[in-house]
Design brief:
- The complex is a heterodimer of chains A (153) and B (424).
- Chain A has a single domain, classed as Cytochrome c-like domain (Cytochrome Bc1 Complex, Chain D, domain 2), CATH 1.10.760.10.
- Chain A is 40% helix and 0% strand.
- Chain A contains six helices and no strands.
- Chain B has four helices and 30 strands.
- In chain B, the strands form eight sheets. A five-stranded mixed sheet of chain B has the order 6-7-8-9-13.
- Classes of the chains: A mainly alpha (153), B mainly beta (424).
- Chains A and B meet through helix 2 and helix 3 of A and loops of B.
Chain lengths: 153, 424
């Protein structure tokens, strides 16, 4: 677990958003609302590639990564704040910065994260729009995503 | 048995083609050229330099946390062929300098990382310099994107350092859809250009001692002085992500097909148009960038920025250029430019491309004909799953030895090839 991941989870824990059990219930299926694969193609594929393996030293693979497979809230927070988090990855550091995906609405972000967590050999559970919504609100309140805090439509 | 002859023919042809490919380690080359493997792989190789005595030096960006073999966990690889069989049989690693730029100048090996240029002095025929390196230039800001500091020397005592822009198109928010471009782009003060320094003076710094020799160059990893033209030549990495950043204006086909990798002969004080413009390969005209009001149809202000001498296909990633001044290759190669294209990632979902070495014929210091593919099939065709992570080999560095042979490095495993010409 990276320093940044720990820091984000600490913030979210404080807000009561992370249970650390990893067993939060996910009543709704976001895939029923937005096509996660289409959202992946539009927002992620250019950098992380069609097979999710990224580009060596440029963009990290999404396969079995600590963020992709970790807590839904931490993943949502990472994608909403963007930036780097590759210094401790086994593949090595990556040059390119990820934008903050605050411009995606809750349903789309939930769908694409759910898609990524279930594809490319990954097998983590879904990320719900509610988790994205709460994470976004909390990040905005804490100032971590204060610059472009698109509220969900 | 009417089908047997054709089957035999196919089998025979396949065997012949395979044999030919195996001869060149799977690379395809023009008739009469031959590639041999000098070393199977030295790691994450970048540029290559050859000492007068034939010793090879390869810059690497080997990550510091790949610790399986600590002895290899340093930046520069030195290779020597002691029995003249064409294979490096002594391989040493030295220096903490991990980067791309590497070149000999007046017998000293210059090497750069993201923040500085160093040099190593050699005693006699030592393969690994024992003396501590000297700092030639320092004070480049540590960045991650386009952070390499490749360099070139002129004939008048100067070194030219590429300072790539840590951005795609100088948006307020880098690589963020719809984010406008900053005008003027503040990055151009310290990045996005070529800085000129004294080639021999030590302890220089970018701000105090450097001259911004040219600007508007996003990232010119491939740069080399051309003595005939008396000019620095660069091949620039063009901007990425037209379609994903501006989906209302551009298609994936536009992104994969339009933004040139531009070759320029640099003139001092020149501005080559990044981030405000890009050069459209298909229209053969410089366009206003979408971050600056462009819509894919509006040309840039005519005459404001030079057109490229050669507009290469989009996203091929030119990572080294060298002018062939040897005499071992046919006459048509003399003075021409070899360019190593590392290969694309930003053409997805369209097929990736550009994993090859290209040749541009020159006459009197100017391109004199169409560019042509020189070395190809570094990767399988098509690339498996269209994924750069599956690229078997990616050409990245070039050097010409005293005997006129061309050396090529690969960044995936650090394979090194020597290309010779034996005639047809």
């Amino acid at each position: 677990m990276t320093t940044r991941m720990r820091a984000l989870i600490r913030v979210l824990l404080f807000a009561g958003l992370v249970t650390l059990s990893g067993c939060a219930s996910h009543p709704e299926n976001p895939l029923m609302v937005v096509d996660g694969e289409a959202a992946y193609r539009a927002n992620c594929l250019a950098c992380h590639q069609a097979d999710g393996r990224g580009v060596p030293y440029f963009q990290p693979p999404l396969v079995d990564g600590p963020w992709v497979m970790g807590e839904p809230q931490a993943l949502a927070a990472f994608v909403l704040t963007g930036g780097f988090n590759s210094g401790e990855r086994k593949e090595g550091p990556n040059d390119n910065v990820m934008p903050a995906f605050t411009y995606l609405d809750d349903a789309t972000l939930a769908a694409v994260l759910t898609y990524v967590r279930a594809r490319f050999g990954n097998n983590a559970g879904p990320v719900t729009p509610e988790v994205v919504k709460q994470t976004r609100r909390h990040l905005r309140a804490s100032g971590a995503a204060s610059e472009a805090p698109h509220e969900s439509q | 048995m009417p089908r047997l002859p054709s089957l035999t023919l196919i089998v025979g042809f396949t065997i012949a083609a395979t044999a030919q490919a195996a001869d060149n380690d799977g690379l395809s080359l023009p008739p009469g050229f031959h590639a041999t493997v000098v070393h199977e792989g030295v790691g994450f190789a970048r540029h290559i330099a050859i000492r007068d005595n034939g010793d090879l030096y390869v810059a690497t960006r080997q990550p510091p946390f790949v610790r399986e073999d600590p002895s290899k966990n340093v930046g520069i690889v030195a290779l020597r062929d002691t029995n003249a069989d064409g294979k490096a049989d002594v391989v040493e690693h030295f220096s903490e300098v991990r980067g791309t730029g590497l070149q000999f100048y007046k017998g000293m090996l210059y090497a750069s990382n993201d923040v500085a240029v160093y040099r190593f002095r050699f005693k006699a025929d030592e393969l690994v310099p024992k003396a501590a390196p000297e700092t030639v230039i320092e004070g480049f800001v540590q960045e991650r994107q386009h952070a390499d500091k490749p360099f070139a020397f002129d004939d008048n005592g100067h070194i030219y350092v590429n300072v790539g822009a840590p951005a795609n198109a100088c948006q307020e928010k880098d690589r963020t859809p719809g984010s406008p471009g900053q005008r003027p782009c503040p990055l151009l003060e310290r990045y996005g250009g070529i800085w000129q320094f004294n080639a021999e003076k030590t302890e220089q710094s970018q701000v105090a001692d450097g001259t911004r020799y040219a600007t508007g160059l996003r990232n010119a990893v491939a740069l080399e002085w051309n003595s005939k033209a008396d000019a620095l030549f660069v091949v620039m990495h063009g901007r990425d992500q037209l379609d994903t950043l501006w989906p209302q204006l551009f298609t994936a086909e536009d992104n994969a097909g339009r933004v040139a990798e531009e070759m320029h002969a640099i003139r001092q004080g020149g501005d080559y148009g990044w981030p405000y413009t890009y050069f459209d390969v298909k229209r053969s005209i410089r366009m206003l960038g979408p971050e600056y009001g462009g819509d894919g149809k509006t040309p840039a202000e005519p005459g404001r920025y030079p057109d490229p001498l050669v507009a290469f296909p989009a996203h091929w990633a030119p990572n080294d250029i060298i002018f062939y001044e040897g005499s071992a290759f046919p006459e048509s190669y003399r003075g021409g430019a070899f360019i190593a294209f590392h290969g694309s990632w930003n053409r997805a979902p369209l097929p990736q491309a550009g994993y090859k070495v290209v040749f541009v014929p020159f006459k009197d210091g100017k391109p004199s004909g169409e560019w042509q593919v020189f070395a190809n099939h570094f990767v399988s065709d098509p690339l498996q799953d269209n994924s750069p992570a599956n690229a078997e080999r990616r050409p990245v560095g070039l050097a010409v030895a005293a005997d006129g042979s061309l050396y090529i490095t690969d960044s995936v495993n650090g394979r090194i090839w020597r290309v010779t010409y034996a005639g047809t």
